[in-house]
Amino acid sequence: MAPLLFYLLSALVLGTALLVVTSKNAVNSAMFFLISLLGTAGLFVLLDAFLLAAVLVLVYAGAVVALFLFIIMLLGMKGGERPPLSHFAVLASVVAAAILGVGVLSFVKHGQITASIADAAVPATGAVLKSYSAQLFTTYLLPVQVVGFLLLIAMLGVIVLSKRFEGMEESK
Amino acid sequence: MDLSIYFNLPLWLRLAIQGAAVIAVLFPIAAACSMAERKISAWIQGRPGPNRTVPPFLAGIPIIVPILQNLGLFQLAADGGKFVFKEDPIPGHVNKLYFVLAPILSMIPALTTISVVPFGAYFDKAGELVPIILANVDVGLLAVFAVASLGVYAIILAGWASNSKYPFLGAVRASAQLISYELSMTLSVLPVFLWVNVPGGMGTLSLFDVVQSQSQPGLWGGMWYVFLMPVSAFVFLVALFAETNRLPFDMAECEADLVGGFHTEYGAFKWSLFFVAEYCHMIVGSAVFVLLFLGGWNPLPWIPLSMVSDWLSLGDNPVLLGALATVLFIGKVLFFIFFFMWVRWTLPRFRYDQVMKIGWQKLLPLSIGNLVFYAVVIALLERF
Question: Which member of A118, B150, B174, B209 has the lowest number of beta carbons within 10 Å of its beta carbon?
Fold first, then answer.
């Protein structure tokens, strides 16, 4: 049952991810992104990582994609036909895909995963709330801090960009 | 009572039966809420409410039929029948796919969230209290929040697909409101879980464990969290009104300035799906509130279910005890449904800027301050 579900969900995630990039209508893209995220949450559930699945649905599917839709709707009520890709964008995506492909290939060929560690680690970290948070505050403390700092910078940037400094400029 | 026939069925069939049974209770309650709403509004406004409809072939029967007639139950059946059989037009200017998809999307989260909400408990053969629940997952509350947060797509898509002004405005307002109040709601329940998860414990977000920690003996153990954390309960309740789009927060509908809000273009069965979904959200939200702050299936504070089962010696009768617990729980939930309606017919609607101001400038600082206060207090209590 589990391998079958894994293949079904993986196909769903990858297929909808492809449709996100290729579909013409921006609202359709956002909805495919939503399905892709739900599929990813399903993959987490297969790994017994219920916490990660719930958080993924809560934050990404529940709030981030909703904000995407919100912006799309505010910018153009029709959902907007997407303008054709520029040459630079095509070049960039081809290079990115090539790098990703090479990375996956070299991982498959030369990567070493010792099965025993992988099996032992699967249910441990993401499944139990306590061990997950303990990992966040010990092993992964630095990445968490860095990501938090990045988010803070992004938040300040949004405030600077969206706030109108009309009164200040007049006083100059 | 011989239940072995049921337990000999394959697991998937039993799970399917359980799921269908829960929906078979939830769905009629949600539908009946619409009639309760009309009756309660009539009662508050000093008028009789719907009391005329009766099928002709039943009209002569004394006592029972006039009571049902006065309660408006035949009106409810007639309304339900009307929604199913009346013509369901799709306007020409809409995006058909999303227009049809939106009401369905509104039902899915509304009916899914109930699967992680425990609604009763009984003692198994070993004397352990076992919850009556469809899926007893450790992340219970987070799963409720996660799935409930998907409800916003029904409103966004309905408003956008309708392709006309008022639904669009309603959808934009409602989605901004839902996203804003989600923050306060999540922050307001954190003190409860700080209190439940004592150091050295497993670390859990399960709703069953929250009820268990309100059923302990002693002054502190038996106290419901509404007494221990009144600010949390208040913030959660206000955010619950906003999340379920109920007055005084029904920016999604707002018929005074938006015709009908996001469902202006909808009629017949699709419209009724939106409304049953709203009532389902109310029921699940009330259930979560009852579990977190009002002791779940415990009849009174300091009197847990186990004490009642000792008095009535129901400890070895799981069916009766489970039924008693479920009835107690549903009774509390129904009181909350009444409370929702009471507020709706008492308070006027907030203006949109007031809704945003309350959400971001009042509730959010209040819930953050509340969280910091309880974190400090709990840390000090652990120290000494």
Answer: A118
The tally of domains found in chain A comes to 2
Structural domain boundaries, residue A144: 128-165
Interatomic CA distance for residues B184 and B143, integer angstroms? 17
**Shortest CA distance from A54: residue in chain B:** B143
- What DSSP assignment string belongs to B122-176? EE-TTS-EEE--S---TTHHHHHHHHHHTTHHHHHHHHHHHTSHHHHHHHHHHHH
Contact A62 B149 (CB under 8 A): yes
Same domain as A93, residue A154? no
Note the pLDDT of residue A15: 94
Q: What is the CATH number of the domain that holds A15?
A: 1.20.120.1200
CB proximity A122 to B under 8 Å = no
Of B142, B176, B178, the CB nearest to A58: B142
Q: Does A45 touch chain B (CB under 8 A)?
A: no
Are A49 and A92 members of one domain? yes
The closest CB to that of A69, out of B146, B156, B203, belongs to: B156
Q: Which residues of B touch A79 (CB under 8 A)?
A: 95, 160
Q: Domain check: are A88 and A160 in the same one?
A: no
Q: What angle do CA A73, A76, A82 make, to 5 degrees?
A: 105
Could you tell me if B292 and B225 are in contact, meaning their C-beta atoms sit under 8 angstroms apart?
yes
- Is A106 found in the same domain as A26? yes
Q: Is residue A172 part of a domain?
A: no
Backbone phi, psi, residue B52, to 5°: -105, -35
Amino acid at position A107, single letter: F
Domain ranges in chain B are 88-383
Query: Which residues of B are less than 8 Å from A71 in CB distance?
Result: none
CB-based contact B251:B153 (threshold 8 Å): no
What is the reported pLDDT for A172? 45
Tell how strand B129-131 and strand B121-123 pair up. antiparallel
Q: Distances from the Cα of B63 to the Cαs of B22, B59, B69, in angstroms?
A: 32, 11, 10
Q: How confident is the model at residue B2 (pLDDT cuts 50, 70, 90)?
A: low
User: Which value does ipTM take for this structure?
Assistant: 0.80
> Do A148 and A119 share a domain, yes or no?
no
pLDDT tens for B282-328 read 888 899 999 888 888 888 887 777 777 778 777 677 778 888 888 88
CB–CB contact B202 A130 (8 Å): yes
Instruction: Tell if the CB–CB gap between A54 and B163 is shorter than 8 Å.
Output: no
Q: Which residues have CB under 8 Å from A67's CB, separation 6+?
A: B179
Angstrom CA distances, B130 to B108, B119, B327, stand at 27, 11, 16
Distances B129 to A102, B120, B150, B316 between C-alpha atoms, Å: 55, 10, 32, 11
Q: How confident is the model at residue B115 (pLDDT cuts 50, 70, 90)?
A: confident
Distances (CA, A) of B184 to B44, B84, B169, B187, B366: 31, 38, 24, 5, 9
Q: φ, ψ for residue B79 (rounded to 5)?
A: -60, -45
